[in-house]
Amino acid sequence: MRYQPRLKNGELVKLSWSLVLFRWTNPGMWPLDDNPTERDCYLDRALVVSGFLTICIQVQGGFHYLRDNLQDLDNFFAAVSPALLQTELIIRFVHMAMHKDLLKKLLQYFYAEIYVPEESDKRSFSRIKRQLLGPQLITVFYMATLLNYFYEFGMNIMTGRRELLFKQAYFFDHRQLPIYIVLISFNFWASLLIVTMVFVDLNMLGEVLMHLNVCYRQLGKDLRSAAAHLLESKDKQNIAKNYRRELIKVLTRNIDLNHFAKEIEKQFTFRLFITFSFSAIILCLLLFKSYKNPAQNMIFIFWFIAKFIEQFSFGYLGSILYQTTNKLDLMYFCGDWEQIIYCSQNVEENVKLMKLIVLSIELNSKPFSLTERNVANEKASPQERVNSDNRA
Hints:
- The protein is mainly α.
- The chain has helices at 17-25, 38-68, 73-98, 100-114, 122-131, 133-158, 177-232, 239-292, 298-326, 328-333, 337-343, 347-363, 380-391.
- It starts with 16 loop residues before the first helix and ends with a helix.
- The relative contact order is 0.11.
- Mean pLDDT is 84; it is low at 372-382 and 384-392.
């Protein structure tokens, strides 16, 4: 029923444990497989609607509790962080549900064309695993935060108190056993939905960006390899023409990667904006609660550490790809084309090659960054001219 990513050869991809956890605990947010049955579509919609309503119930109970405890600052600050996080997750939940089909297309292209299997390049794969330790560590801290909530719930049950998982209040008595069972069930389900949605974007985006980074770095290796091979040949009449053909192949791949970067922007930019907007407030509140009484606020300590590392990891992973794409123009400039022209005896092909080199540098004049602007900063005219040259 649920989409299972496959490599280009049809082999199933072994997902990271954090994505597997999200896929199983939050099935409504994961795309459906190809050709789903009508029953699967109805069940998927039911999961999405029920999940959305469950989180809305948590938000309503949280803000009702805040209104009732305006004078009690300790309880107020204990409840405002979960309420803000749940509000953030409602927005991200709706956006993710509306873009599941785009996510599926992005994952299909990623695992077919971008993903670097361990068998093909063990060194790059190992480096990617090290770079993704931060997102995985964040997942552990968020799960530890959730376990602390579960621990407090267990202690309340042992002492005979019917307290909810989060600080919530309703316009009715929620301590009556039938109502309490329903609400605590909603609490547990909502907590799994919220925690998995909190860490999935960073884990998914991190994996996509780091594999994309390897593909961008591979462009320079391919170009230098082609130049070295041609320089060893003795065909001085066609050496510039052959190098231009190889350069067009690299540029075509470069443009494909830039288009994929645009799809990443469509999928993640809005949710990242929402995450950073709420995180600025939540971090301040968590720091206040952690500092005030550390011994009794282990939940907020784990949560603060996870949130802090999360913001750091977003910047760290983004800066890696930013630095790589910032050097793409230099990569084309230092692609040994001057040696090719020096050896070539075809003046016309030399001129065409130099024009294409200038075009390559212009195409990659600005680095990748996740903003509302064009991700690859790819101008239409250079791309059209490269495509035109490719057709020629």
